[in-house]
Amino acid sequence: MIDLQNICRHFQMGDQEVRALDQIDVRIESGEYVSIMGPSGSGKSTLLNVLGLLDRPTAGTYILDGRETTSLDDEELAHTRARKIGFIFQSFHLIPRLTAFENVELPLVLAGVAPEVRRPRVQELLASLSLESRARHRPNELSGGQRQRVAIARAMVMQPAVLLADEPTGNLDHISGAEVLAAIEGLNAKGITLLVVTHDAEVAQRARRHIRMRDGRVVEDAT
Amino acid sequence: MRFRDLVRLSLDSAVRARMRSIMLLLAMSIGVAAVIALTSLGEGARRYVADEFQALGTRMIIVIPGRSETGGVSPGMLSGETPRDLTLSDALAVQRLPGVQRVAPLVIGSAPASVGALEREAPVMGSSSELMPVHGFVLARGDFLPPGDLSRDTAVAVIGNNIARELFPGREAIGGNLRIGDRRFRVIGVLADQGRMIGMDSQELIIVPVSAAQALFNTESLFRLLIQAHTRDDMTRVRDATIEVIKLRHQGEEDVTVITQDALLSTFDRIFTALTLTLAGIASISLAVAGVLIMNVMLVSVSQRTSEVGLLKAIGATRRQITALFLTEAILLSVAGAIAGLAVGYGVDWIVGNIYPSLPLNPPVWAVVMALVVAILSGVIFGLMPARRAARLDPVAALAGRR
User: B325 with B178, same domain?
Assistant: First the structure.
């Protein structure tokens, strides 16, 4: 499913080279539930960005679903992101002027899916996340937990193979956080590959496989 | 992405950023309205002058005594000759030319006109019965000059409305006696209010038979000879024949200037078209300013929506799609501004048209098309740079709100 071979990501900071990722080798099979932990600056967010095809590694090979990705151009990367990868962010990243429904619909709109196909799919997803009554509300009229569930619906609407969650409960209280985790774990139970980056040991413990990072390297990979 | 979705998303973004959109609409509509209003003024002035010429009479050829040389020195000037007068017998000779329908001689001067103790200075025009159809005068009441022998000195006068009011206050002018200079005339007609002719206000005019005017101003020579051709096609032939016959009568000297209405009209036409083009050019500067404003505002919008661009990239938007979204927004705004500007421009025309009904205010079609095209083009050109900047943002940095 995901195969990282000798992945490096270096940044130039002034005259100093920062190795955000330093020779990472990770294989993740389809349907796994992986947590990625580590202190700030350990490279876990960079790893997530590389996995999500938002960032290109400086060196190494990344094979996603049998396809080498480091040689793809911007256009192909965008298409791969649209079809294979769903993102959930700590700060939700909903578009404030669009309703919950329209936010969820957006990936389908970009992919050029016809309105009559989009509508039932979005409605079904919102219903499965108990959001059907909030469909016409804008993000500022929703609670944090609801916002994150809208973001989950948006991530899922293209039926991706991988769900990447960057601190998904970071901005939520305990109860909303538990709801959100239950929602994404439910998706994992149905077969999606789930990767969660987190500071929170309690959240990390729920995963079946734990990757711990420090200074751009994987220091622990345990199941 | 489907076209309808593209427009809907862009429109949504424009409508939500209300203040920003209003400012852009305002700038663009001022630019377009300026083009519409200014070119309407130029075009209106052109049409006004053209109408004035129409009022001068149709199919008209004007003979002016004296030769106006535009280049070089005429032989007459070297030999010290003065141009010969244009006389009534010249008029009669022209009258007999083929293609000539009417000839109206003109003698113009100014003389004191009085009725009893009331006196005022008035322009006096000496002519014939043919003046009315040639010049397009309309009578309010009474008769125009009687037809007949041009050399007969009949003591009758046709007067303008204002003259009638001032010299015959509270009573009927027709049949009244009028003293012009040291001669007495009987008033036989009053001219209708027809507005101004070129340089002459028909309400302030006294018209008498040409020989009476010649006697009054003690002159044999005519001020002008107005010739009306039968058809437009006769114009050139009549003009050439007129020059020929007068040259013959003036000992082979071509000492008159013959101008046709068409020539005058086309000269004025060119002048006013140039004026309108200049005004359009000046007004389109404001369109360019509006374009720069679009660019500025869109750039600000891109930096405000950096994290939104990052999100769009994360959910699979291509560079082309992001460019299209921002560009469509800029184009929608400039099109809306252009339409608002058209409305404002036509509104201004309507208001000015109501205040000055004699000025025909309508923007020329090319100006309307140009204003719209320039407005939309500036949306495209000035919207492209911000849109491409948005599309080029690095997704990781953009998601974090950094640029």
Answer: no
| B375 assigned to some structural domain | yes
**pTM, full prediction:** 0.71
Using CB atoms within 10 A of its CB, is residue B72 exposed (0-12), middle (13-18) or buried (19+)? exposed
Is pLDDT of B70 > 60? Answer: no
- Domain limits for position B34: 3-53+266-399
Which ipTM value was assigned to this complex?
0.93
Contacts of A82 in chain B (CB under 8 A): 315-317
CA–CA dist B52, B195 (Å, integer):
10
State pLDDT tens for residues A154-194: 999 999 999 999 999 999 999 999 999 999 999 999 999 99
B331 vs chain A: nearest CA distance in angstroms? 20
Q: Are B56 and B403 in contact (CB under 8 A)?
A: no
Question: Locate tokens 């309703």: which residue?
Answer: A99
Q: Is A92 left (phi over 0), alpha (psi -120 to 50) or beta?
A: left
Cβ neighbours of B319 in A, within 8 Å: 74-75, 78
B92-135 tens-digit pLDDT: 899 889 989 889 999 999 999 999 889 999 999 999 998 888 87
CB atoms within 10 A of CB B230: 15
Residues B65, B86: contact at Cβ < 8 Å? Answer: yes
